[in-house]
Each structure stands twice: as structure tokens, then as C-alpha cells.
Fold these 2 entries.
Entry 1:
Amino acid sequence: MTDMQNNAYISFLPGDFELKGAENTKLDMNFASQRFWKEAAMRFRKNKGAVFSLITILLVILLAIFGPMISPYTYQQQNIKQTNWAPRVQGLENLGIFDGSESLKTSTGTKLKNAYVVDKETGAKNDTYYWFGSDALGRDIWTRTWTGTRVSLYIAVVAVLIDMLIGMSYGLISGYFGGRVDSVLQRFAEIINSIPTLVIVTLLMLIMKPGLMTITIALMLTGWIGMSRIARAQMLKLKEQEFVLASHTLGATNFRVIFSEILPNIIGQLITNTMFSIPNAIFTEAFLSFVGLGIPEPMCSLGSLISYAFKSFTTHPFQIVPPVIVLALLMLCFNMLADGLRDALDPKMKEM
Amino acid sequence: MRRYIIKRLLISIGTIFVVILLLFILLQLMPGSPFNDEKLNVDQRAALYEKYGLDQPLIIQFFKYVGNMLRGDFGVSYTISKNTPITQLLQTRLPISLSIGGEAVLLGAVIGLILGIVAAIWHGTVWDTIATIVSVIGVSVPSYVFALALAYVFGYQLNWFPLLYDMKIPLQSSVLPSIALCMFTIASIARFTRSEMLEVLGSDYILLAESKGVYGPKLIVRHVLRNALIPIVTVLAPLIVGLMTGSLVVEKIFSIPGIGSLLVTAIQSNDYNVVIVLSFIYSAMYIGIMLVVDILYGVIDPRIRLSKEGPHD
């Protein structure tokens, strides 16, 4: 209000204005769109949970890339003599934690056991270190956890690609053309959506070998529907607007109208929705591997590691902790990141 | 309204047919045959094929198959327990899965509603923060992580509940699985209730009610809750689907003899017939629930049946 009142007292002279050329008009557009992303970034930075999630995710990505490299073991290397060894970490072992000892509950009571001890009288230990311990086949859990995380991250990328390539195009095209195209495409999506994902995946497992490829195909068959609905709804909102009409009048092709006129206006919501589908996809993979329909041995994913460690989780609980924590952390952070992005990109949608 | 219900019914029936057709095609595509025994000679194999009707033309097989499926005659299991009718396998397992799923839905809906209402009424206080944290964790952490934690703490360390499902004490045995399963339901219902309630609380008609002197519990129950609860019906369908997939994992962790664990065993031992029957049952349940929820929503909220598109937009 005060701005407007002040403006009323300012008188403009002709010299205050200058005619902008056609090139400058384009510049102005650029400026406007930059503003949007700058503002979004500002809103995003204010959201502590989202920033924390982003940092955690980056950290997990770094560990997934470099974790297996800095360990002396490979994910499939077995040492039959060193099975079920508790975690032992250099440095921390002097503090009394992660020193390779674990308490075992037996019928006669609990007893402390340290598998690293070579000489029982002096308590001298050998110089092997399993940072997260070793599993029932003598494989390093540190290496396997981060190798498994790679699978989950690959699934995240696949989910984004599916949403962006299949879901978005399907929804945009269905909404844009409307009429018969729309009703055929929508009936098809409705039918696919009426078959539970679980059933589609199960049936796929019957005709294909379990593995990363099968999981990718399963996600491709079912992952795009949510996205296509949102893209279609947004398209229906926007396609009657004047700028679309203007674009048509100027002779733009359908392809151009859809992908370079309308799409930039709704990209924020689509990105948000894509982020929400990442945790779903990661969960689907972990779930399939957990029930034994996912990645076959000796390859591993977080789900298959949890499934494997589950068999002995009452006697050696340390084995199940790392994959469970990484998985829970990934899911939590992707969800919080998506929440933060939604608030940043689309402040109107923000919950009150 | 009638047109809307008929349209939804037709879509559901169509989908059931598509599912059966898909299952049937898959059955034909399966590698190998159900009779993999190498000792069988050609004649014996032909006799077996004739016995199970596998020598007839595909079209006839398909219609027989549809008829059998709809009548509830699911054929026999090939490998899990040889020649046992699948109906018999299901008789003991289906009730167990359904009761645990039912408990989880009930528990999740009640706790979720309470949490959401509390968070919305005392919006911006500690209660709100607690409810938000619970719902973020519940939505993001997979149900089997909860199941493992519960099993370890209450089943193994404290020994309050059986670690594995015990047929003799079904009630105690189902406590931990139901809690593990309902976490996701609690979280999503709490989230949804909270945002719906806040939207209603900010609306003009609540302002009107307040200025007319309605306040306190009467305002919340009569004016806010009634309007806020309508859209919650829509989240029920996806939640029940979540329970279906969740049950597979939870049944494995607590070794519950339900249909989820049967499905996993069947896939691993290549018992196609059982897999296909279970897929059919899962799809039929899912389609049925979606139909009921859609129609219910149309009955409760007149705006839905008046709009041309139906509840999907």
C-alpha cells in the first residue's frame, strides 16, 4: 500500500522511459524465469530438513561410489574362516566400541566373544578389520552395503527417467489431444492401474529371470501412472489459456506447444512428483529383494542384504543394522527432499 | 448416479477379464510344462494332458478357465503340496491374512485419525510437531524395518509377544505384525486428516459458524470433522494396496501361514497354478475395493457424480 501511495507523488518525464527493442524483450523473459528458480532456491535453503536431506543423500552417493574402493575386500570375496565377525574399526576400538567383540546369548547366559583375538592369554588381535563386520559366508558387510546402495541409487535414476519420459509424455499427450485419444489412453491406464503392482511384478518374475533387468521392466510397466495423471490434469488446466492460443496462431506445431510452451509452466509440479516416486521405487526394489524375488547372489542390494542378515538377526544383530539404516535414511531423505522441493517450487501447494 | 455406478461396474468387470486373460496368456508362455518328470514317456504325458484338459484348443481352455476362476474352482497345486486343491490351501491361510490386514486397517485408521485431529486442532504446537515427525517417519520407513525392530525388541529381548506366529495363540501372535503393518496407514491418514482439517478450519463457513457462536467440540465434530473426513475415503484404496504388499514381507518375518507367504513360496518353487490363483485373488480384492471406494465416494460427495470425469481428477 505504501509503495502505491508514494508512487502517486512521483511524476514521470518522457526522458524516464526508453523504447526497448525486440532483443531486450527476450532478455526480460530470461530474467523472469531466473527469478523463479532463484526464489525457489531461496525457499529451499530456508527449509532445514530438506537441506539436511540433500546433504545426506549426497553423502550416501559419495559413500556408494567410494565405499567399496577404500575397503580391502570385494563384495563377493569370501573368507570361510572369518564368518560372523563383529564390527571392528581402527581408532574407535581403543575407546571400547567397535572393537570386534560381541555378546552371545546362550542357554547358560551371555558371554563376550571376540573373534579377532589370536592369542587368548595376552588378548593380542590380528590385523584384520571388518568395519561393519562380516556375514555368515565371511564377506565384508561394509563393501556389500555400499555395493547394495548403488543398486538403490540406480533404481532412483530409473524411476526419474520413467516418470520423465513415459509418465510425463503420456499424460501431456492424453490431456492435450483430448477426445478419443484421451479416452483410449485413459481406459488403458485405468486397466493397468487396476492390477496391483505386486501381481504385475510377480507374473513378470515367472517369465523372466530375477534380476536388475526384471525389476527395471516391472517399474517401467507400473511406475508412470501417477505421473501421467498429474501431467494430464495440469495440461487440462493450461491448454485453454491465451498463450497456447497465441502460440497456435503463430503456427507452432503440436509438439512445440506441448513441450516448449506448456511444459515449462508445469515443470515444477512434475519435478516434485518425480521426487516422490523415487522412494516408492527404492522401496519396491528392496521389497522384492527381501522376499527373494530381486537381485540373485552373489550380487546384492539393500533389500537382499536385509533378507540375508534377517536369518541370523537374533544372534548377530550387527549384520542387519547397516543396510537397514542406509535404506531407512535414503527413504526418509528422499521423502523430505521431495517435501522441501514441493514447498519451494510451488508455494501455493504448501500445507497450511 | 446410476449411470456412474454402471460405468464403474463395467470398467471393473472389464478389468477382471483383462486380468484373467493376462494370467491365461502367461500360463501358456511359461517355460516347460507342469509335468517335468523325465521318467514320463510320451503316452503318459499325453494321458496327463488329457486328464487336465491341456490337449484342447486354447479358446476352449480359456473359457473353461474363466468359468472355473469365477466359480472359485482353482485347480490343484503342482509342486507345493502335490494334487491338493488350491481352495483347500486357501481355506486356512486366507482368514489369517485377512484378519491381520483388517486389524492393521482398523488400528491405523483410528490412531491416524486421532493423530491428525490433534495436530490440526493444536496446530503449530508441540503436538503438531510430534504428529508431523511420526507421519514423516511412518511414510518413509518401510514396514519391514518396523517389523524387524518390533520383533527384536518385543519378541526377542523382552519376550512379550511370540517372535514367530503361533497358531495356538492367534491373538497375541498378531499384535506385532499388525502394528508393523499399520505404521504406514497411521502416517498417511494422519497427514491427510491434518491437511484436510486445516483447510476446512480456514474456510468461510467455519468463520460463519464461529461468529454465530458455535465453538469447542461441537464446532469440531459437527462442522469441521464432517467435511474433512469425506476426502479421506479416497486414500483408503491405495492404503489397502500398501497393506497387501506389506503383508508379504511381514508374513515372512513373523512366519505367518497366510497367503502372502504362500505366494512367495509358490514363486520360488515354480508352482504356476498357485501363483496365478493368488494373483487373481489379489487383483479381484483390489478391483473390488477400488469399486467400493469409488462408489462410496460418489454417494458421500455429490460433486463427484455430477462431474463428467469421475473421481480420478
Entry 2:
Amino acid sequence: MGKRIAMVGSGAVGGYVGGYLAHHGADVTFIDTWPEHVETMNRDGLKLRGVTEAENIDVKVRAVHVTEVQDLQKEGPFDIAFVSVKSYETQFAAALIKGYLAEQGFIVSLQNAINEERIAEVVGWNRTTGCIASTISCALEAPGLVRRHVPLRGDSYTVFRAGEPHGRVTDRIQEIADMLSVIDSAKVTQNLWGERWSKLVINSSGNGISAATGLGGNGMAKNDQTRSVSIRMAAETTQVALALGFTIEKRMGFTGEEWVAAANGDNKIFQDIEAKALEATKNRKDGAVPSTGQDMVKGRKTEIDAINGFVVEKGREMGIPTPLNEKIVDMVHKCERGEVNPDPSNVAGW
Amino acid sequence: MGKRIVIVGAGAVGGEVGGHMVKYGEDVTFIDGWPEHVDKMNKDGLRVTGVTAEEEFTVPVKALHLSGTQELNKGAPVDIAFVCVKSYDTEWATHLIKPYLAPDGFIVSLQNCMNEEAIARIVGWGKIVGCIAAKISCELKGPAYVQRNIPIHGNKHTVFRAGEIHGEETERAKEVARLCGFTDSAMVTDNIWGERWSKLVANASSNGVSASTGLGKAAIADDPHIRMVKIKLAAETIKVGMAAGFKLKLMQGLTPEIYESAVNGDAASLKILEDGMIAEGHKGNEDARPSMGQDMQKGRRTEIDFMNGLVVEKGREHGIPTPANEGLIEAVKKVERGDAKASASILANI
């Protein structure tokens, strides 16, 4: 204890994690760009809601507007800064907190997509670590109100995976994992990049399609065309990850190599994956929509550039063609600008 | 006309300049971190006042909270982004607006100090134009209310000097001068570096002195030791600027040699400088304070690292010792942290 912690971005994940840390006695300062949210947190505290009654807590927190950050220098620097903003605001957030970090202070990217490189651009690699929050499914429902939609995982599945970019188990990364373990299961991963890419395979083959078609997770799996596009898109991303030398986790029981084979003409595996995708709809609520799809519905800018755009960029570096990822980036941008309405026909013939 | 302009930081200068652009029909969006200011601008418009009644106007404006920045994603990309934040906020402000710039869009640093390098590190040298606002003396009096404290200069003194890093007179630099010209006299300069550094000579020798001593301008001018400190600060800053190869424009009739010999004990040179300082100190409001003196009074973070800190940094690059600047930084920081009270004696050892 005694570490000073900043949550840069107090949305769904930042609010959830920071809120529980504060509840367990950590010294947490929330920084956010949404004025109403900051004011509500200061006035009424942060309301955390989960699936069970025991998870529902109201916690008193301290939140500051960005314009008040300059005032924080009087209180001594931060030891740990969690960055949990949208990917396209990563450098902004890192640059914002950089001047207030302690000499040994560092940043934890608690975000979707792969933003460690963006953070390192601003503060250097020695101050950059990452943490995956896997299938945590939180939402900021209203100012000061964060809800988790799925049960606590506990031992059945490790939610938080904190890691150093170089993979070694350092004291500071162990401290992050220990700290988060009061919230839900947490571990140190020695394979941060591989885990990030494994998650990116899932995000890149679901989020953009959801935003471009207006379908949720189940809708995409049940529609023949989107299901097929999704599998082939996952294979593209997997191929880029494998070319980069990362270890990709099995998904739906199939290895990365098997996903690539499915997209390249192995009909047997392709059909097996399709069957698994359909089976998965039984355990998922129809209302579940990936974050990019949610952003589109709300009229917000999406993370498409950081998800599929990132795959395209890395594919180019490695000489792997990624035509489907390119198409979805274009299509989602068209939908964002209002030139095209989200509709399943947007991916017809892909 | 037709250009999409964003003002990042709608404080004293950003509000003044942006408000005038809106008055003359330009398409301007303000972004600011102070929630109350943004809300009031949207509700009641931006009020701008000057020394005479004719200068006062109120215009309806579009203003976004930082969390609203992502809305820029809709509609045309941004052609010109004026960054008018405190120097220590430069990097995050640049990161914040970068994703929304048009391919030929660019950033104008309309700030104190010399932040072009910091901005170029983020968006590249091709996307930065500098603009000095000399002797504009504006103040954000309250939410949505900007006041200018001195008369319009017009032909007597050119307030705005917009310039390319390379000094060429480009169309875009002329456009910046045109836009600033709604507020007061404006020109394109072929010497942005020299002008910036000349302004820095004045700022580096007065802002920190005011902030650390807590004195108004007449009291400073009347103290012989503080006068000498100011001369030392100016002499060091001039020396560094010359070593860096900047074309300096000093106050009328003054030369770098006068500062140098005054520091070395030449009575005639010292008298020339002291007479000038005393006369200036008793002109107008005798209790006036430069921006940093105001910041200190309000308990806000100062720009000392970007002002005298820049002198020290560039001095090191060119092998010029800057002990007076280093001493001043230490004094200002002591007062900033609350480790010492502002007083004249704090500069005793410089």
C-alpha cells in the first residue's frame, strides 16, 4: 500500500478497476474528460454494479477534470498510472500523465487493442507495461455508474493478465497482478504480446463487422455471410500474428494454424469452426454487442483503426495481405461518417 | 473561408483570437478542459471585452469538452488547429487533435515559450506553423468571458507574427496571419525562431522573478539586487540564443554587449539598463504581474520549465553556462511546492 495510483480514463474498465481498488483501500485518483462523470463521482461516489448483490458497492472516490491535473503536482508524483481510454486517445492520455509520474513510476495499458507501442512512444519502453482485462464486459451506464455484465470468474478463468513487454516477471508487474486479484482472478503473463494478439484476433473478427452490419455477437454467428467473413478475417489476423512470431492461444478448440488452414480451403475445419460458432450463441445473450458496435449505435468514433487498421499496418510490415481487414476499415469509416447505414448487406460478397 | 478551424485551449489567447474569428464568420470549434467554461460558451456564447466599449461583443460559439473531441470525426477533417494551451499541456493537446487533422491540415502554436519542437515531434515538422502574440495582454476573467487589458495596437506595433519554421512566406502562413488579423495587426515573419527567442529574453527575465518574489512590477524595478538578477537572466538568455544562431531583435537601442558588460560591472551599461527598467516599472499599473506571477497567485502550475528550463536546456546543448536561470527555476519551484514563501530574499544568492 501507500502507492499513488492514477486512473487516466475512468470509463467502463477504468471505473470498474479503479473503483474496486479504492474500495479495498488503495490511494486512487481518477482523471476523466467527461465533466458530468467527474462531478457525479465526486458528489455521489462511484456506483459499481455486478451480477450478484455482493458485488454492488458504492465507493467514495476522488476524481479530477483534466484541467485540474496541473494541480496534482503539489501532492507528489504517481507511482502507477493505469491508462484506460479509447485507443485513439492513448498518446493523449500518456502525454497528459507523463509529467506527473515518479522517477520509478510507470504506465499500465489497461485497454483493448495493442497500445503498448503508442505509450512507449511517449514515455519510453521502461515505463510501459500492459494488462489485459479479458471478457470482463463492463459498461459505463451513466455518470458515476459502472456495471459488469458477466459473473466474477474466479478460478474458472483468469480475467486480468498483467505483463511486461519483455515478458520477465518483475516485482512491479507482480504487484499489479496482486493488486488486481482483490477484484477478480489475476496473473502475471510472460506472453503479453501473444495474449494481446490472441485478443486482437477475436476483436478484429467481430467488432468491425458488428459496427458495419448492426448485428450483435449472436446475429453475426447465425448469419451465413457474416459468420464466414468473420472466420476468414480471424484467419488473416492470425496469419499476421504468426508471421510476427507470436504464440496465439487456441480459440474454440482450434490452433492458429488450423484457423489459417480453414480460410485457405480446408473445408472440414471450416465447417467445424462454424459449428462451434453457432454453438456459442446458446450461452450468450442476444443483446451482447461488441464495443465497436456499441460505439456506432451511440454515434461515437470507433476504435476500428486501432483494431483492424493495426492488423493492416502490421500485415504490410510482414508482407501479409489483409484484404478483408482493409475492407472493414473502409466500411466502418463510411458508416461513421454517415455515408452508409450499418446493414448486413455491407459485407455481401466479401 | 471554408476552412475548418479548431482552437485547442480556449483560454485568454485562444478565446480572444477564436472569438474574433467567429465574429468575422469563420468556422471555428473550441475545445477546452474547463467544464464550466465550455458549458457557458455553448449556452450564452463567448463574451469578449476590450479597453473601449466598441471592442465588446458576444458571439454564439461551438465548444466541446475534451470528451467531445471525438465528435470532430464527423464532418470534414480539421484544416487548422490552433494550440493555445499552457506549455506543459502542449504534448497532450497535440496528441488529442492529431487524429482529426486533414492530410494538408496543420497546427499553429499560438503559445508562450517555444513549443514548435515538441509539436513537431508528434505531428512532424511539415505540420507546424508558429505564431507569436506579442503584448496582447488577455485574461480569461471567468467562464466564457475574455478580457483584453490593453488598447488595440494597430499600426503602431504588430501583435501577431505567424511564421514557418523554415521562414518561407507560404500561403498557409499568410492564412494564419489573416485569421489573427481579425483580432489585431498581424504579419508573416521570416524569423520565427529569432522572434520567439527575443520574446523569451523578456519572459525569462521577468516571469519567474515576479512569481518567486510575489512582487508587482514597480517593486521589482525599485530593488537594485533584483534588477541585477534580471540583467543576468537576460544576458544568459541572449548568449544562449546567439550561440543557437537565432537572429535576435532586442528592445530599442539595446545590444547583447550592453547586457554582457553590465553583468561584468561596467557602470555606464548598467545605468542604461537600470534607467530603462525603472521607467518601465512605473508605467501604467504598478502592481501588474506577468502570466506566471498570476499563476502563482492562483496556485496553478507555472510554465517555468518551458521558459527558463528551455534556456538551461539549450544552454547545455551549446555549452553556455546558465547559473542565474537554474537558480531562478529552483526558487520558483520552491514557492510552487509551498516549501518557501514568495519574497524578495529568495533571489539573494543569484
